[in-house]
Amino acid sequence: MAEFQSKVSTWTSSPAQGAGTSVSTLRMDLGFVRSRLRVFMLLQLLHMKLYKVPWPLVLMIFNIIAAMLYVTAFIACSAAVDLTYLKGTQPYNQRAVASFFACLVMVAYGVSAFFSYQDWRGVGSSAYNGYY
Q1: What is the structure's pLDDT at 126?
Q2: Partner of 95 for a Cys bridge, out of 4, 44, 81, 132, CB 3.0 to 4.6 A?
Q3: Domain regions of the chain by residue span
Q4: Into which family does the record put it (predicted)?
């Protein structure tokens, strides 16, 4: 028994002695931190944490606000089209095209807000019976 006790050591070693690597050489993988995979993993975790958020309502509010902002952009661009410029000149064309596309985007956001409203209210689902 005395031989056994003399051969066994009961002292513990530090992590640097036992593992062969020191703690200071462990580093975060910065490539993963900047990767798209990490972003998708964080979005999935965020989605799992925020499952009680009424996303159709949030989307509807976003679309309504965006449509209102594009209404102001359309009015501002349309007011900036100076009728004293000759049609076909560069300043006239730029402002007219900006007004047209602001109107187009405004309509798109308005339609998206309408569909978001229908999604939020449940219109078109199999559980919808026409009564509120």
Answers
A1: 61
A2: 81
A3: 54-122
A4: Belongs to the MAL family.
- Predicted model pTM: 0.55
pLDDT given for residue 102 in this prediction: 92
67 neighbors 109 (Cβ within 8 angstroms): yes
Is residue 99 a contact partner of residue 78, using CB atoms and an 8 Å limit?
yes
Which tokens in the block code for residue 130? 């026409």
Among residues 123, 22, 111, 116, which one has the least CA distance to residue 70? 111
The token pair at 17 is 């002695």
Distance CA 69, CA 89 (A): 28
Cα–Cα distance between 106 and 100 in angstroms, integer? 10
* Cα 118–chain centre separation: 22
Picking from 71, 55, 67, 69, the residue whose alpha carbon sits closest to that of residue 113 is: 67
The token pair that represents 87 in the structure block: 């049609």
Distance of CA 127 to the CA centre of its chain: 30
